[in-house]
Structures are given as structure tokens and as C-alpha cells.
Amino acid sequence: MFVNAQNLGEAISAVKTLQKASAQGQRIYHITQANQSAILGNIHHDPDTMNEIRNALNAGKEVITHTDAVSVPGWSGAGYIITDPVTGDGAYKIAGGGNGGYLNLFNGSLMILIGVLLMSAAWITFVAGFAIAMLGIMYIGLGYSKINGDWQSFYTATNVAMFFSIALIGAANVSVGFFLGALWLAITEINSYL
Q1: How confident is the model at residue 150 (pLDDT cuts 50, 70, 90)?
Q2: Contact between 10 and 192 (Cβ < 8 Å)
Q3: In this structure, are 31 and 52 located in the same domain?
Q4: What residue numbers bound the domain in which 125 lies?
Q5: Phi/psi class of residue 96: alpha, beta or left (left: φ > 0; alpha: ψ in -120 to 50)?
């Protein structure tokens, strides 16, 4: 899935799952050891999630969850919060073992990163070609000066090669800067969905 203004990606978390379930009209339950027998029959999560909820309740923990699966592109399941009423510790979980969140990273962000790497490879090829051209200019100047006995031509060719060396260093800096900037942009794009 590609992410753009018309096709927005969507991450999921335990809290967002509970919000989506509530918006769909699902009931949100706060389950304790005292009320579990009356509530667990109303919840329709996958067997692993139900086992984790039962185990937490048997250990004296409390669980907040919804009745049915919630879906986003690339994921469908339940979100739930397991808390310890004594210590206040909590675990924000989603079905499938995610600790509180899920994001389908193949929603274009990975494609951006691959594109950046390929473009950087093109720049490296360009810079290497530039270096070979610089050496070629020096050899042409050296050959011309040997043939004609005119060392001024060699000095001119050396100056031109030096100019190209400076340009080559600039091009290398641009390519590294371009790569790092694009990598930062891709990472920022990924983090905006987390």
C-alpha cells in the first residue's frame, strides 16, 4: 500500500483499537476477577488473546477490552490493556503479540528508502566517472606536453584537473548530503505513523 494524500496509512495501537471499537458502537469492558464470568462470554477475540486475558485475570490483573475485532489495512484484531490494580503497572497489547502497536511499514516508506539508496548509487557512479575524467584530462595534458615539449600545457591540464578535483569533492559532498537528507526524510515519515 502506498501512502499519499489520497491514500493515508494507518497505524494501530491498544488505545486506538479501543477508540475505533467505541466509535463502531462496540461495548468497552473493564474486566476483573469479580465480573469475568459475566463478561468473557461477550468477547469474541482470537483464542491466543482470550487465553492471555484469562491468564491475566487469574493472576489478579484487570483487563480493558472491546467485544469484536477491529480492522485497519494490513491488520485485524483486538486491543486490550492489562493492569495490575496493586502496583498500577499496565501492558498495552494488541492481538498477535504486539506490545501496544502495529504499523505496516511496507506502505510506501520502505519504497522511499529503497529509492533513496538507488539514487545514491547513481550519484556514486557519477562521482566515480568524474574522477576518471579528471585523470584522463591529466594524462591528455601530460601526453600533449611530451609530444610538443611544452610543459605549460601539462600545468594547464593539471590546473584543470585540480578544478575538477574540487568539483568532485563538492559533488561527493552533495551526494552524501542528498543521501542523508533523504534518509532523514524517510525516517521522519516512518516515525510520523508510530
Answers
A1: confident
A2: no
A3: yes
A4: 109-191
A5: left
